[in-house]
């Protein structure tokens, strides 16, 4: 799987903030009291359940910031689907540094791998259709870049990153503007020529009105599979068809079979289960 790695310019401030939250002013007082300063060890990151790995750059950054002497060796790469028991990385060097960075590294790695694993499950469920799985802006504050990266590691795609990179007209925008036609006209007048315009609709009647005006994409919110099939027929390739709202692993295949282009799912970033990864003393 080929996807761009995260820039250290994005990663380092997030990891530094997490380490500061954990270590505070005094550092790891437990390890400093219990572990001799010159003690060295090696530990392995082991998958305690099968899943897709994401966040190795972030884990490595955590150890590097704690103690640059630590050596982080990868035994896997982001985007790989691996069985339970796989060793995905190894860290060696001063034991105090390993223990000080352990929880921060595992927090990021488990969370991001959980997102990648959940995404991969959905991607597999829609195989054979044209539908792509995409994330939303429903991310944890401060972690959006990392969480959206994890979605890509799982084989998914990213929706807009923020309010600044695409126009998405929702019901409240329509209410304020006094109607969908006026909202679209204002968006077309105010957006640059490189900015896409998408409109959210709840009913097929709203969809027909939007399509009579013309936009780049339509978000079909909380529609049944039968409604989605009819919506795809109405759109007829004139705009991107995106299904969203209440989609689960049990329903995603039927949604994809309706012919939509995109399926956007918020829970893959805000509520994906953590992937269980342990940092264990290396067996020698």
UniProtKB/TrEMBL annotation:
**Gene Ontology BP annotations:** NAD+ biosynthetic process; quinolinate catabolic process
Protein's pathway: Cofactor biosynthesis; NAD(+) biosynthesis; nicotinate D-ribonucleotide from quinolinate: step 1/1
Top-level taxon: Bacteria
Q: Which residues form the Quinolinate phosphoribosyl transferase C-terminal domain?
A: 115-280
**Where does the Quinolinate phosphoribosyl transferase N-terminal domain start and stop, copy by copy?**
28-113
* Stated name of the protein: Probable nicotinate-nucleotide pyrophosphorylase [carboxylating]
Q: Which reaction does it catalyse?
A: nicotinate beta-D-ribonucleotide + CO2 + diphosphate = quinolinate + 5-phospho-alpha-D-ribose 1-diphosphate + 2 H(+)
Function noted in UniProt = Involved in the catabolism of quinolinic acid (QA).
What organism is the protein native to? Falsochrobactrum tianjinense
One of the record's GO molecular function terms = nicotinate-nucleotide diphosphorylase (carboxylating) activity
EC nos: 2.4.2.19
Q: Name one GO cellular component term.
A: cytoplasm
Matching InterPro entries, A to Z?
NadC, NadC/ModD, Quinolinate_PRibosylTrfase_C, Quinolinate_PRibosylTrfase_N
Which key words are in the record?
A: Glycosyltransferase, Pyridine nucleotide biosynthesis, Transferase
Q: How does it assemble?
A: Hexamer formed by 3 homodimers.
Q: Which gene encodes it?
A: nadC
Q: Hey, which family's this protein in? A: Belongs to the NadC/ModD family.
